[in-house]
Amino acid sequence: MGDLITTLMVCHFIASVGAAEIRNLKTSTIFLMLQSLLLALIIAAFAGRSQNYSLYWWVALTVVTKVIIIPGLLWVHIKKTQVMEIKPLVSFVVSFIVLAIFLVAFYQMVHTYAGFVAPTAAAAVEPARSALALSFTIFVLGLYVLVIHRDAVKIIIGLHLIENGVHLALVTLVPQLPVSTVFGIVSNVVFAAVMLLWLTDNIYKAFGSSDTMKLSSLKG
Amino acid sequence: MVVTINPTAVSILPFLVFMVPLFFGGLIFALGRYGKFFRQGLALIGIFATLAISIMMTGRVLGGEVLTWWNNNFYIDGLATLMELAASGLGAIVVVYSIYYFSEKTEAAEAHPYTSMTSYYGQIMVFLGLMNWTCATNNIIMMYVSLEFTTLATVFLVTFHWNKQALEAGYKYLLLVTVGVIFALLGSVLLYAAAIPYLPVSRVLLLTELGTIATKIPTNIVLLASAFLVVGFGTKAGLVPFHAWLPDAHAEAPAPVSALLSGIVIKVGAYALARTISVFAPHYGTIPLFIAILCSISMIVGMMMAMIQDDLKRMLAYSSVAQIAYVIEGLGMGTYLGIYGGLMHLLNHSIVKGLLFLAVGALIYATGKRKVSELSKIKLNMPITAFAFFVGIFALSGMPPFNGFVSKFTLFLAVGQANLLWAAIIGIITSLFTLVCFFRAGYKIFWSPKESYSVGAETTTAAEVPAGMWVGMVILAVAAIALGVFPQIVHPLLDSATKCILRILIGG
Questions:
Q1: Which residues in B lie closer than 8 A to residue A181 (C-beta atoms)?
Q2: Which of B5, B79, B111, B428 fits as disulfide partner to B497, beta carbons 3.0 to 4.6 Å?
Q3: With contact defined as beta carbons under 8 Å apart, do B391 and B355 qualify?
Q4: Three-class SS of residue B10?
Q5: Pairing between strand B66-69 and B8-10?
Q6: Contact A218 B168 (CB under 8 A)
Q7: ipTM value of the model?
Q8: Is B68's Cβ below 8 Å from some Cβ in A?
Q9: pTM of the model
């Protein structure tokens, strides 16, 4: 079981970096879908391991919202606009190398000093320790995407990486979260994504571009 | 300090206070297209019903009760009633004002089909419902959820004019606040997880239980979670450096919406901080210091940015960045005087900033202009708006005998008591510059000689706005003066609200 969780986590990490770094928006969206699917599988593995079946609600909601609805909407939007991302601030090779080194180092740091971020003793024991380190790493990766990328679609992908990171931390730290709360958190995410996409659509119509750097008429 | 623990009473009111506006909001969305009554009439009925419920709850809370519903998951104490009274009161004034502010022409021409008047009133009601829900809930994760929903519910109010600037402002607002508030979720999760070993399952999510375990949670978790919560709720409140969205969103929204955004929405961030960070402030000396530094930066940046604005609404928006810092500074002190001053300034700033945005809305309504340089060339015959504007700026900059003076004075005392005299001095200087900044704008708009600037015979004198608009402004202006002269009117409510936080502190 431990091996399975480790494998899933490694795949989750690779899919996250793919979603963040690939410049073809369609491929990037597929990676985001894979990333969310792997998150669902990690949660399912946790559920099976701890015999905590209320976690399957998380799995079901993650699959419906993050694997189907949001990537689907992104896909429709990309078809209407353009496939290639607007050039980000940093070139692919530099970004990829810097990110790979930084993320691995960051993961190692959080994993080594897990006691600092783990609120309970149980959270500092494997596999929760790795999951916690991974969730913080994905969170930082999402923030990086928001800062570096200019394309509105990529910004939504970055937002999702952040949210998936936090949700992984949530499942790891508080698996016994009531179902009503899980519904609240997940519906939040879906509403935010749909509204952001809708605004992006209209901004594309108004400005003729999904370049968020051009959103600078309001200054000072 | 000995704080008596009030008896709790199970009541449906905490549920109604957010369900009534949500219900009317849904009703407006469903029926609004069938005519004016179904939009404006239903909004009026809904908001005054909510106001009545808030007043009833205030009465019971001041009578010494704590209202709860659904196993303490909804919990109305003095602090929650203070917020809900402010939200419903300002909400009622804004709804009445909106009816006159948007002319038939606006309804037909300016608004995009998606952002029609139906969805305008619908969203205002849904937003007020969510706002009341955020204050009524006692569940730390649901507080995040409803707080994030208040952002989502106001995005299409910000983009109401549906032009490039409005879309840009709405996009920034939605994206930055959503990302910011996720930090708060992470902080809440850390606190929640840390509380699990010490509390039974049914009570572990409750905010009111946080105080009982404040000293048991490991120090590193408290500091980490506090940092995340300050970033998260600080973004919602518009503190520097998380304020980038605020001037855009508050300036591009229609004036009544700006009044709600500056008057209430940013306060909910301060409220959430009061419920969480204040619990730890007395046990950790670094938290008050950290908050004082952050808030002082916020005051200086907000005030300096306000000084260089020509656009009145952006000027007011930047001043909100500075003023919310006073509120949070007080709450972060963790002492009775600090929390009292912070909450009083929260109430006062709601009144005053609501008043100022409505007054600027009246200027926009009468002239179609919102820049100081343009307004200063137009002859204005608007005595009531001018009165409201000047009351607003004197109260905002903390001049006696207006309400801002009382709350700021209390705050400066509290900050001084906490040995942070430099922070009090920064607060006083910021207030003085606020006066300079707004008095200069007010002088140019209302007093400067206009004849020499007159463009032509067409630039006739701008007349006073309809009564439906100025009544709300006069009510708020009178409140600003009354609370300055007789601050004891609100003392019972503020005292009760302050003791709520202190009771959480000592763990009751």
A1: 139, 141-142, 145, 205
A2: B79
A3: yes
A4: strand
A5: parallel
A6: yes
A7: 0.92
A8: no
A9: 0.92
